[in-house]
Automatic annotation (TrEMBL):
Gene Ontology BP terms: defense response to Gram-negative bacterium; killing of cells of another organism; trehalose biosynthetic process
Cellular component GO terms held in the UniProt record: cytosol; membrane
Molecular function GO labels: alpha,alpha-trehalose-phosphate synthase (UDP-forming) activity; pore-forming activity; trehalose-phosphatase activity
Protein name: Trehalose-6-phosphate synthase
Natural source organism: Streptomyces fructofermentans
Family: Belongs to the glycosyltransferase 20 family.
SUPFAM superfamilies found in the cross-reference section: UDP-Glycosyltransferase/glycogen phosphorylase
Domain Channel forming colicins: 339-350
Pfam families: Glyco_transf_20
C-alpha cells in the first residue's frame, strides 16, 4: 500500500553507509563508511528526505537495531543471522560474485546441489525482506535505487508490491558473458535476470557489462528485453575535491614519511592497494614483480613493491587461503632477493585509508591488474592524488580500462611476463611523459564524480521509456 508520508528517494544495499561497534562496556559507536555511493547520496542532502535501507552486518549493528539506535536517513534491517549468512556468504559472495568475476576452477566447481538450493531460498527471503521494507518506506511514486548482486530479486518483488514506484537497479560488478552465466541452473539464471528486469532501468559501470547483461537476457530468456526495462551506463568516477583535501592532511604526511623510510632513500615504488580479494590478482602481480627482478637485475635494490591487501570476506575459507598465499609469496620474494637494507615487497594488511593515500602520493607506478573488476576506483584515485605523476599499469579486464586505457600501460592480467615487461616500461618512462599521462588520466578519472553519477541515475529514471 502506498504511503504519502514516506521517503521520495530510497537507496537499498547490503552494506550501508554506517556500521556500529560494540565496546566492552556495551557502548555503541557509529562509524560512517566511504565509497562512491555514500558521497553520491550526500549530494541530495538529508533535507530531501532520502532513506538508505541496508543490512545489519555484525553484532554492533544488530544491537543498534535492537536498541532502536539509528542514524538519520538510514534504516538497518536485522534479517535472521542464518538467512543473512546463506544469502551473503553463500549466494552473493560464493556464487554470484564468482560467476560475474569468472572465478570458478571449473573442473571441481561450481556444484549446484541441495545445499545450494537451501541457500537460494535464504537469498529469496533476504531479498523479500528488502522489498517489504522499501515498500513500507517509499512515498507514492518514489525513486528507489537498488544496488548490486546481493539484491537482484528486489526490483521484481518491489514492483509487485508497489507498482507506483520508479525502480532502478545498479550493478557495481562486471556482468558475466552468457556462456559463463549459464553455469547457473536455468531457473536460477532466469530468476536473477527477471528480478533485475523488474526495474524500470538496469544500469552498469561500463558498456561492456551492460552488453553482457543484454546478451544473457537473450540467451536465457529469448530475444528482446521482455519488460521494456531500459539499460544504462554510468561510469562512477573519483571524487577529486575530497581526495585532494584528504590526502594533504597531517596524518597522511606522517604516513608518507614512515613509508619513505620503509622504501628507502632514492628507490622507486610500485604501489597496489586492494581488498584481499580473489579477483584483484595480487599473487600474479607479485610474480610479475619477481620476474622483473629476474629479467632486469638492474632493478634489484632500486625498487620496492608496496602492496596493501586489506582483509575481506574472511568468513570464507577460499578468501583466507588466498590471503595466506599473498603473504607466502611476499615472504618468498623477500627471502630470495632481500638484502640487509632492502626489503623488495612491503606488504601491509591492516586497513588504513590515510596510509593508502600516502602510498598514492608517492607511487612511481600503480599496479591495478584485476582478473575482472566492475570499475576499480584505485586506478582512478591514484592519478588524482599523485604528487609527481605515476604510471598506471592497468588490466584490460577492469571497467576503468574503457576510460583510462589510452594513457595507462595495459596488461592481460594472466600474462605475468607481459606484466613484468609493463612494469619495466613504467619504471623507465621519461618523467615528462609520465606527468603528461597522469594529467590526462586524472581528467578522465574525475569526469563523473560520485554526486553527478548519483544525480544522473535519478534523472534517467524520470525519462520516459
Ligand atoms: C564490491 C561490491 C560491493 C561490496 C564491496 C565490498 O565493491 O560491488 O557491493 O560492498 O565489494 O564487499 P563486502 O562483501 O565487504 O561488502
Amino acid at each position: 500500500m502506498a504511503s504519502t508520508q514516506g521517503a521520495p528517494i530510497l537507496v537499498a544495499s547490503n552494506r550501508g553507509p554506517v556500521s556500529y561497534a560494540l565496546d566492552d562496556s556495551g557502548g555503541l559507536s557509529a562509524r560512517r563508511g566511504g565509497g562512491g555511493l555514500v558521497s553520491g547520496l550526500s549530494a541530495i542532502g538529508p533535507e530531501a528526505g532520502a532513506l538508505w535501507v541496508c543490512s545489519a552486518l555484525g553484532d554492533g549493528d544488530r544491537e543498534a537495531v535492537r536498541r532502536g539506535v539509528a542514524e538519520p536517513g538510514v534504516r538497518m534491517l536485522d534479517v535472521d543471522a542464518q538467512v543473512h549468512a546463506d544469502a551473503y556468504n553463500g549466494i552473493a559472495n560464493s556464487v554470484l560474485w564468482f560467476v560475474h568475476h569468472m572465478l570458478y576452477q571449473t573442473p571441481l566447481e561450481p556444484v549446484f546441489d541441495a545445499g545450494f538450493r537451501r541457500q537460494w531460498a535464504s537469498y529469496e527471503t533476504y531479498n523479500h525482506a528488502f522489498a517489504q521494507a522499501l515498500a513500507e518506506e517509499a512515498a507514492e511514486g518514489a525513486a528507489v535505487l537498488v544496488q548490486d548482486y546481493h539484491l537482484a530479486l528486489v526490483p521484481r518483488m518491489l514492483r509487485e508490491l508497489r507498482p507506483d514506484l520508479r525502480i532502478g537497479h545498479f550493478s557495481h560488478t562486471p556482468w558475466a558473458p552468457p556462456d559463463y552465466f549459464r553455469l547457473l541452473p536455468d531457473d536460477i539464471a532466469a530468476q536473477l535476470l527477471g528480478g533485475i528486469l523488474g526495474a524500470d532501468r538496469a544500469a552498469f559501470l561500463t558498456r561492456r557489462w551492460a552488453d553482457a547483461f543484454t546478451d544473457c537476457c537473450h540467451a536465457v530468456l529469448g530475444p528482446g528485453i521482455p519488460s521494456g526495462t531500459r539499460i544504462g551506463v554510468h561510469g562512477l568516477g573519483a571524487d577529486a575535491d575530497f581526495l585532494r583535501e584528504r590526502s594533504h592532511r597531517a596524518d597522511v604526511d606522517e604516513r608518507m614519511a614512515a613509508l619513505r623510510e620503509q622504501i628507502g632513500e632514492g628507490r622507486r615504488a610500485i604501489v597496489r592497494v586492494d581488498r584481499t580479494e580473489l579477483s584483484k590478482n595480487i599473487v600474479r602481480g607479485m610474480l610479475a614483480f619477481r620476474q622483473l627482478l629476474d629479467d632486469e637485475p638492474e632493478w634489484r635494490g632500486r625498487v620496492v613493491h608496496v602492496a596493501f591487501a586489506y582483509p575481506s570476506r574472511q568468513d570464507l575459507a577460499v578468501y583466507r587461503a588466498y590471503t595466506a598465499e599473498v603473504r607466502r609469496v611476499a615472504e618468498e620474494i623477500n627471502s630470495r632477493y632481500g638484502t640487509e637494507d632492502w626489503t623488495p615487497v612491503v606488504l601491509h594488511v591492516e586497513d588504513d585509508f590515510a596510509r593508502s593515500l600516502a602510498a598514492y602520493r608517492l607511487a612511481d607506478v600503480a599496479l591495478v591488474n584485476p582478473i575482472r573488476d566492475g570499475m576499480n576506483l584505485v586506478a582512478k584515485e591514484v592519478p588524482v592524488v599523485s604528487d609527481d605523476g605515476c604510471v598506471l599499469v592497468l588490466s584490460r579486464e577492469a571497467g576503468a580500462y574503457e576510460e583510462l586505457g589510452d594513457d595507462a600501460l595495459t596488461v592481460n592480467p594472466y600474462d605475468v611476463s607481459g606484466t613484468a615487461r609493463a612494469l619495466h616500461r613504467a619504471l623507465t618512462m621519461p618523467l615528462d611523459e609520465r606527468a603528461e599521462r597522469t594529467k590526462r588520466l586524472a581528467a578522465a578519472a574525475t569526469a563523473l564524480p560520485p554526486a553527478q553519477w548519483f544525480l544522473d541515475q535519478l534523472r534517467a529514471l524520470d525519462q520516459p521509456s
